[in-house]
Amino acid sequence: MLNHDTVRQVVFEQPGDANVMQFSEGKLAYLQPGQVRIKVHAAGVNGPDIKQRMGAYPPPEGASPILGLEVAGVIIAVADDVLQWQVGDPVCALVPGGGYAEAVNTFAAHCLPIPNGWSFIQAAGLPETFFTVWGNVFMRAGLKAGETVLVHGGSGGIGSTAIQLASQLGAKVFATSGSEEKCQFCLSQGASFALNYHEKSFVEPILALTDNVGVNVVVDIAGGDFINENLKLLAMDGRMVSIAMQRGPKATVDIFRIMAKRIVWTGSTLRPQSVAAKAQIASELRQHVWPLLDAGKLNIAIDKVFLFDEVVAAHQYMESGLHKGKIILSISN
User: Which terminal residue of the chain, N or C, has fewer Cβ atoms less than 10 Å from its own Cβ?
Assistant: First the structure.
């Protein structure tokens, strides 16, 4: 597949519900220095895809407007300066857009090998969640072995990955989710305690489980009214990392509590980060996490696989909130 070949891809002309998506034939840009081209076998479906389709998360300048931020497939072309990958190598990769297509360009430094024994379908669910979790929970919030962490939304792709990684690397994990079934799923992923936030406050039960010390780290996808509750629950010198705002982008915060507990509140979005920053995350993942994947000590929970032609149904399913784990598009064999 050369520079002038066309690829089938998902486009939308105006933001809206899932039905605005349609297929078209498009040409890929020429490879830039440091890039590779991947024949896409499978692509992950993620929350930012939904937001972009609805007009709430525009792609950064220079990024492809095509949806899709993670893929698995086979390298079919490399730029002249790329030495670490060759044509024919199977990889999974973080992509700057363009994943909902038969082929995509991305940076060689954002590719990782397919773990031992993993299929393209499984590997397509790795990059977005593992880059996000490692970059936020371990690099920004500095979670360490022996510490405690609360993961909100523990049954989703980000949440289940955070639970698994934190528990495998020696932290004690608490989780919240929206139903008893989802809480049981969190426990199966490695959480020591999971609570349905629709039924009761999570603050008092988790304080009781930590002898009123609180947790060292909170991984927050909720925002809104959960922020002050998180601050109540954090231990002295605790860290809170925000990675989504499902309960709203604004919060009324008790500033004195942050001061009194010496709390660090940080957060990030992945897609706008520099090529170098994402490459650093990829390097740390390969060093610290890929050995666990190769050894079968971590998995990725795949909830449902949709054919490429079923992309509308895939988005509708994600928006239903019924999924537990990742949603994957199967693009080619």
Answer: C
| DSSP H or E stretch at residue 226 | helix 226-233
Treating both helix axes as pointing N-terminal to C-terminal, what angle do 180-189 and 157-168 enclose, rounded to 10 degrees?
Answer: 40
- Which pTM does this prediction carry? 0.93
Q: 77, 87 in Cβ contact below 8 A?
A: yes
Alpha helices, DSSP H, located in 113-216: 120-123, 127-133, 157-168, 180-189, 203-209
123 and 115 Cβ atoms separated by less than 8 Å: yes
Residue 86 CA to its chain's centroid (Å): 26
For residue 31, give the nearest of 63, 79, 97, 96 by alpha carbon.
79
pLDDT of residue 3: 47
Residue that has been written with the tokens 């792609």 in this structure: 59
Kindly provide the residue ranges of all beta strands, DSSP E only, lying in 46-85, ordered along the sequence.
70-78
Alpha-helix runs per DSSP H in 236-306: 255-261, 275-288, 290-294
Average pLDDT, the chain: 95
In degrees and rounded to multiples of 5, residue 255 shows phi and psi of -65, -35
Please give the C-alpha separations between residue 99 and each of 55, 142, 174, in angstroms, as whole numbers. Answer: 18, 30, 33
pLDDT tens digit string along 128-182?
999 999 999 999 999 999 999 999 999 988 999 999 999 999 999 999 999 999 9
Cβ-based neighbour number of residue 177 at 10 Å:
26
Q: Which amino acid is it at 141?
A: A
User: CB-based contacts of 37: which residues, under 8 Å, 6+ apart?
Assistant: 1, 28, 31, 75, 76, 77, 78, 103, 104, 105
Task: Please say whether the beta carbons of 216 and 238 come within 8 A.
Answer: yes
Identity at 306, one-letter amino acid code: F
Q: Which residue has the tokens 């993961």?
A: 151
Q: Which amino acid is at 203?
A: V
